[in-house]
Amino acid sequence: MKRDKFYTTLHNGTNMPWVGLGVYQAEEGEEVKNAVTTALQHGYRGIDTASFYGNERGVGEGIRESGISREDVFITTKVWNDEQGYEETLQAFERSRRNLEVDTIDLYLIHWPVPGKFEETWKALEELYKQGKVRAIGVSNFQQHHLEKLLKQASVKPMVNQIEFHPRLFQKDLLEFCNSHRIQVEAWRPLGKGNLLSHSVIQNIAEKYNKTPAQVLIRWCLEHEVATIPKSVTPERIRDNFEVFNFSLDPEDVSSIDDLNENHRYGYHPDEFPYDDMQG
Predict the structure, then answer these.
(1) Spatial contact of 189 and 195, defined as CB atoms under 8 Å apart
(2) Could you list the residue ranges forming a coiled coil in this record (predicted)?
């Protein structure tokens, strides 16, 4: 697989940025628009949003106002739980595309593995992919058993699995499973909700490399060939979070960060998500 300093190559040949901007909880309007514009001006070329975030319009506006060519920006969005099912997903995709005001979405993901729904949802993603409306398709928050079920019926293999991934939730077995099937893992919440920034191990390593704790955590993902989407709306942090390509971590430092794993989640376990509470 071709590797690049700034891009990973998915199994279908599509290049995806190693580091993108996550916009979860960024307010629709000026806040998300400014975050996107700031990120693109500081070198980011990937923006990750979702139907559920309610800020796709602002993301689209930020991209257009940045002055960066649309072809150079990798846009990810996701189909939410109450939009799943075959026809529902096709309709949800069109809504996202209209909100973003783009012809093609670069990566479209199933946001969570809704029981009894995600298989039909995947068929819709395959159709969108075959029609050329998306450059790549994938999943988010899928455990190994979800992937195994999907792989048995899929005619197009997922290109990405976006999961909660940080030193307190290493998910090494899932990472190895995805790697064995050439499914690119992408980390959400790579900074561990900020709690890891003050951890002594992270702080000591940051001091060693003259980097911020956040930069060390993002770099740790890259050392494991995991793409990532740190979120921020603060210009300085957005800028700093991208300055991770001019150093690498020594193997012993990677190992000491690996050892922080506690299987601790800040978000839901995919098998414990309150799917039954969804409307629609």
Answers:
(1) no
(2) none
Q: Give residue 235's Cα distance to chain centre.
A: 20
192 HSE (CA, 13 A, CB side)? 24
Containing domain of residue 132, as a range? 7-267
- Strand-pair partners of 17: 7
Number of domains composing the chain: 1
Which tens digit of pLDDT belongs to each residue from 87-114?
A: 999 999 999 999 999 999 999 999 999 9
Does some domain include residue 88?
A: yes
CATH value at residue 126: 3.20.20.100
Question: CB of 162 within 8 A of CB of 184?
Answer: no
DSSP-based three-state secondary structure for 8 = strand
Active-site residue among 44, 53, 129, 275? 53
Q: Tell me: the pLDDT tens digits for 71-85?
A: 999 999 999 999 999
